[in-house]
Write a structure and sequence with these properties.
Layout (H helix, E strand, L loop, with lengths): L2 H21 L6 H10 L7 E10 L5 E10 L2 E2 L2 E6 L4 E6 L2 E2 L9
């Protein structure tokens, strides 16, 4: 294979690698978190931020995650608790949204 052929092959391989990386979860339990937010009528465009916090127990035992979601046009947070295997154990809203915003928790 000549140098140009190697260059093209390397570029294709790199592009394929990047697409695989982009498909990986941006944060732990992303699939389960997004499903629960969708169930709560919190759409992806309305999310201002998602903060995933690792919950640790005694002797640094990993217990699971606590997720704090800020929603645009709302004050407060939508909070999830998940086990170490991404099972949602609780979900509650501390959201106060503007009237007519179409957001949950009004």
């Amino acid at each position: 294979m000549n140098k140009i052929g190697l260059f093209v092959f390397a570029a294709v391989l790199m592009a394929a690698s990047l697409s695989v990386v982009e498909q990986a979860a941006a944060f732990p339990c992303e699939k389960e978190i997004r499903a629960k937010l969708e169930e709560a009528k919190i759409s992806k465009p309305s999310i201002a931020s998602i903060r995933v916090i690792r919950e640790m127990g005694e002797e640094d035992t990993f217990l699971g995650y606590e997720v704090w979601t800020r929603v645009r046009s709302c004050r407060g947070q939508y909070i999830l608790s998940l086990t170490d295997s991404c099972y949602v154990t609780s979900a509650h809203s501390r959201l106060s949204c503007m009237a007519g915003s179409g957001r949950p928790g009004r």
